[in-house]
Amino acid sequence: MSVLVYTESEEGQFKKTAFEVASYAKGVADMLGTEVTAISFNAQSAGDLGKYGVSKVLKVNDEKLQKFNAKAYADAIKQAAEKEGSKVIVVSQSANAKYLAPLLAVQLEAGYASNVVALPEGTDPLQVKRTAFTNKAFNFTKLSTDVKIIGLSKNAFGLKENQTDATEEDFSPSLSEGDFAINVVSVDKAADKVTIADAEIVVSGGRGLKGPENWGMVEDLAETLGAATACSKPVSDMGWRPHSEHVGQTGKPVAANLYIAIGISGAIQHLAGVSASKTKVVINNDPEAPFFKAADYGVVGDAFEIVPKLTEKLKEFKAGNS
Amino acid sequence: MHAQYFSSVFMYLRNPFIIFIYKILRYMKILVCISHVPDTTSKINFSEGDTKFDTAGVQFVINPNDEFGLTRAMWFKEKQGATVDVVNVGGTETEPTLRKALAIGADSAIRVNTPATDGIYVAKQIAKVAQDGGYDLIIAGRESIDYNGGMVPGMVAGLIGANFVNTCIGLEVEGNEATAIREIDGGKETLKTNLPLVIGTQKGIVQESDLRIPNMRGIMQARKKPLNVVEPVDTATHSEAVKFEKPKPKGDIKLVDADNLDELINLLHNEAKVI
Ligand SMILES: Cc1cc2nc3c(=O)[nH]c(=O)nc-3n(C[C@H](O)[C@H](O)[C@H](O)COP(=O)(O)OP(=O)(O)OC[C@H]3O[C@@H](n4cnc5c(N)ncnc54)[C@H](O)[C@@H]3O)c2cc1C
Ligand SMILES: Nc1ncnc2c1ncn2[C@@H]1O[C@H](COP(=O)(O)O)[C@@H](O)[C@H]1O
């Protein structure tokens, strides 16, 4: 009956989202009067999950699952849910989790609520609050199935420590050939770059920066803050920056702790995609720019003067604070 | 004697080479799922005690992710030959959106005559259309910008037992083989698989500048193209959106002087506690 949580890892190390979904699953388990079981794939230090309230870790160690594979992972999670008799399954909203969740929902005939932002309002029936209309609204969704899947939005719940003795158990799901009908032939991923999906801080530039040659100062600021870089849609459409950096309603969603928008006007489509960020700072030379109405802090002025100065001052601040 | 004759014909038909020739000679059948959504500039309001989306004054469009997918389908049609049908699960109000897809170049449209109540319900309707039509490739958006479920394409794939690639930003098909590029957090990966295939797609499969605005000729032709209305299969929903809520209005912004950036750092550190 335990709540099952899919905990993501990379090269054996759990990702921060794994601890966030575990924290959330513990909250749900408390409401249901049960415990949390985690399933991990080729991860080493399963004990770390205990800190966030996980009582049992099902460790899948399988060479064939070294690379993420939505169908095979979904199949394994399904078998874990059946073995544990889990009625609630919690996943993150990473690209991989969003890939496997609908497959898992079909396999378990489970209702699936994506982009969930808070603990359930009630458990019988299970009702959750989720974002809709790309952050322009919330909706409350009731799941009527026996088994339910909750997709937890990044940064919506945070980490909650809850020291628990986690037992570990090896788990070998039986996988079929059909689980491997899609083969990864190559992966192209910048190893040392903070991704928008994982970043705590995102520094984003718009058309106000005039051209791709001016992105050095954006990158410097991002590096100083350990942040990911992003951009508005026209910037990616013009090829100043790669499409993977396009954020907004039709680009990637941003749910960071801090979002810094430089030379971005704040069009409704842009704001929709970034509004889930906790704190927003805008730097723009037009005091009438709509972004000023949607941000927490603002600086009116020329980005070409402000950004390098801000980076210098942040470096001093970091040096003084470490 | 007869049996032998039939079995040799059968062997011949099952010959991989013959299958290969057949597959490349036969046009690929593509189904593009079209979600009918409020234009991205829409203000979102609710009616009936915040239980219904208020459509007053709202303009509806093809879901942006679906439009990218539809454009990729047109390229398949033009470059290697394919038939492209579009499908929507919805009431009569979605027909102008389907007509727009026809004006862009789809060959025919199917409307499953029922409100789109939840992800699995819509997926089961599309799965039925997909199975009846024997499609090789089903293109849907990574997510709709209204419900943001991010679930219909994966569920369709699961239901019909097709392969599935999500956040697909590149696709080539040759015979029965597909090479897809999937966007992952922080990069991309290249995948190989076989048809039948379902993709959940987004910008990148084609670029913004590749999108097509229907011209007069397309609009005229679209009026004559078939738009078939089919009745839904009876199936249960799994979820229900019971109530909506708008985000709380934002508090006032704090402006910091451009000559006083230390104050900004102070606020971010001590007040917002984000650095
Ligand atoms: C269907 C659709 C979907 C869309 N989806 C998205 C989306 O997902 N994401 C997105 O971002 N957009 C999206 N858009 C586009 C959106 O409507 C805006 O056009 C876009 O966000 C504007 O980008 P921008 O702010 O960089 O440029 P602009 O609107 O041109 O703004 C540039 C800003 O820079 C400021 N500026 C100029 N010089 C300086 C300087 N020296 N220092 C400081 N500031 C300066 C200006 O005052 C201005 O406010 C979409 C549009 C449509 C139609
Ligand atoms: N009512 C519908 N009719 C046709 N296709 C749909 C419908 N709803 C969703 N889809 C397709 O599924 C994709 C993802 O939708 P969703 O799961 O709602 O985020 C959309 O981009 C469409 O391609």
Structural features, described:
The complex is a heterodimer of chains A (322) and B (275). Chain A is α/β, with parallel strands linked by helices. In chain A, 27% of the residues lie in helices and 27% in strands. In chain A, helix 2 (70-84) packs across helix 3 and helix 4 (216-225) runs parallel beside helix 7 (303-321). Chain B has a single domain (26-248), classed as HUPs (Rossmann fold, 3-Layer(aba) Sandwich), CATH 3.40.50.620. The termini of chain B are far apart. A nine-stranded mixed sheet of chain B has the order 11-10-9-12-8-1-6-7-13, with helices on both faces. A two-stranded antiparallel sheet of chain B has the order 2-5. Chain B contains eight helices and 15 strands. Chain B is α/β, with parallel strands linked by helices and 275 residues long. Chains A and B meet through helix 3, strand 7, strand 9, strand 10 and strand 13 of A and helix 5, helix 6, strand 9, strand 10 and strand 11 of B. Strand 10 (137-143) of chain A pairs antiparallel with strand 14 (239-245) of chain B, so a sheet runs across the interface. Chain A: This is Electron transfer flavoprotein subunit alpha/FixB family protein. Chain A: It holds the Pfam family ETF. Chain A: FAD binds at residues 207, 263-270, 284.
